[in-house]
Every structure is written in structure tokens, then in C-alpha cells.
Amino acid sequence: MLRLATLLFPTPQAALPPLADVRRVLVIRADERVGNQLLTTPLLRALKLGLPAAEVHLLAAARQAQVVATRHVDRVIPFEKRALFRRPWRFLALLRSLRRARYDVVVEAAHWSGFSLTASLLARVASAGGPVVGHDRGASARFLSHPVAHDPANASEVRAKLELLRPFGLTPRGLEPETELGRDAAPARALLARLGLAGRPLAVLNPGARMADRRWPPEAHAEVARGLLARGLAVLVVWGPGEEPLARGVAEGSGAALAPATDLTLLAGLLREAALCVSNNSGPMHLAVAVGTPTVGVFLSGDAARWGHELPAFAAAEPLPGNGAAAVLAACDRLLSAAGAAPPRPAGTRP
């Protein structure tokens, strides 16, 4: 398929226009995972602030397009990969609209480590022969006019994504992801009041994750929940599709409260109300960081450098068997202390 696609779409040779002449930029991030959308927002912010006269459009998976920070995106174009087979007429209409938009530059922003044929083909169609910026992934560089080599020194995914600014000559405008979700505090506050959690510092605990090797055992999360309760925090266990039994076990094993089913907007609102979030490496972890909540990320696969955040309000914990909960609680104490919200320590513990 790659060979056929490169025959149909020869390597583009277009040069980048002067920055003052750039009026419309398309960024393509078609991945359906919430975290990957959020990790793209620092790139979007840098493009918008670095090209103030240009419109920045984002083609994003339809299911997760809502998480994108709208103040740095002039238009979000929802993309449904399944439409290629289920509603081909809709897919063709999307291709026509991308072509007619006459983008000055297209940025293909899939992971530097993996080639996305879908994103590459969308970028070539949208560019209409114009410049396409993206990471150099070997043979896939034939889809790009401006392939960008990944620097291994940029270990974090955010820094790697910001490498795509290099052909523009633009500088990053911060490493923090962002979202507008959950700014209306009323629904989250109403739920917390209903659960009897209002009036105390809140910790949100997320024991789920999409990938099994990123799920810390529920009994370990329950031990952390008990430690946070002993420190005077209210603890709310949240969960995603298919994770309710896991979350219920953590809540019942610790005395923490169990959240009802939440959509992303309500989850973001709850995180905005929280003094702390403890989460496996997952979409809710990145969402907590994006709304500005002090967050402890639990990493089990030695990938904290890539998927963690280089921010003062983020701590990566890599628990070991036997003392994992203590390590995570120590990270919680550091963040709470730095935020000036450290509750009293439980009796018998050392500072």
C-alpha cells in the first residue's frame, strides 16, 4: 500500500512560503486517543501564536475533537476513519473540502515513532501539491516536502511534537497541554455535593487505562486511596468504559467514593475541582495535566520520560513491588506541599 501510494502521490517539492504569507495551516492528528490529542495542543499553540495572521485548522478524530483547546484552533475538522467504508460519500466530501481550502502548509502530526498511512494520505490530498511537514520515518518521508528528523534528546512526546516547528523557524510557547473542557464548574460541584465530598480538598483517583500493561493493581490504588483519606482528603475514584468493576473494587477496598459514569466534559470539571489527581498513564492523566491539576502519573513500563510531563505540577512515579504505594504517596505529598495544599500527615509518619 505504501508503494502504491507513493506512486500515486510523488514526493512533494514545494517550498514553505514566507511566514508573513501563510494564511491557513492544517494540522492532522487523526488518532482517537484523548491523550494524543492533548499532547498536540502545545504545537497548535505555538503555530497560532507564531503565525498570528494565519488560521490554524485541526483535523482530529471526531470522537475526541472536543478536547482540543479551541482558543488556539480556528476550526476543528472532525474525521471518521470508518466513514471510508461505511459512508464513502461522506469521506469523499471531506477530501474535496480539504482540497478546496487551499492550505498554505499541512502539518502531519502523527507520532514520530510510527507511520500513519491514513494521516499521510490526508496530508497529501489536503496540501494539493503544497508543502507538507512531518517527522521523517524512513520510507514514509516520500510523502513530505519537509521531513523532520527526530532528536533522541527530545525524550518527551510533547518536545518531539514541537520539533515540527523547525521548518517554520518558530519557537515553542510552553510545554503544557491545554483544553477548554470542564470550565463550567456547576455540574462537577453538583455531583460532589451529591456524593458528600464538598468542602474538603479532593483527590481524584483513576485506576483504569486502555492498555493492560499500564494498569497498576487495584489493591495498590486502594492503598494509595487509604493514605490520601488518612491525610484528610476526600477521594473520588473515576472510571471509563468497561472499568466500573475495577473502580468499584478500589472504592470498596479503601472507603473512597465511587463516581458515576462521566463523559469527558464532566470528568474535566471534576479534575478542575481537585487538589490532586493520581492516575495510571492514560488519557485522564493527560486531561488532569491539561486542566492544571497537580498530577501524579503511575508508570509501569519505564516510559515516564516519553509520556510524562516536564511541569512543576506533575510527578512521575514508577512504583516497585513492596513499596509502590509509599512511593506514589510521597509524590502526592511533594505536589500538595508545592501547591500549598498539603493536608496534615497521618499519625506515625515521617516528614
Automatic annotation (TrEMBL):
Ligase among keywords: no
Keyword rRNA-binding: no
UniProt xrefs under SUPFAM superfamilies: UDP-Glycosyltransferase/glycogen phosphorylase
Keywords: Glycosyltransferase, Transferase
Short name of any one Pfam family annotated for the protein: Glyco_transf_9
Protein name: Heptosyltransferase
Listed PANTHER family: ADP-HEPTOSE--LPS HEPTOSYLTRANSFERASE 2, TETRAACYLDISACCHARIDE 4'-KINASE-RELATED
Signal sequence interval, chain numbering: none
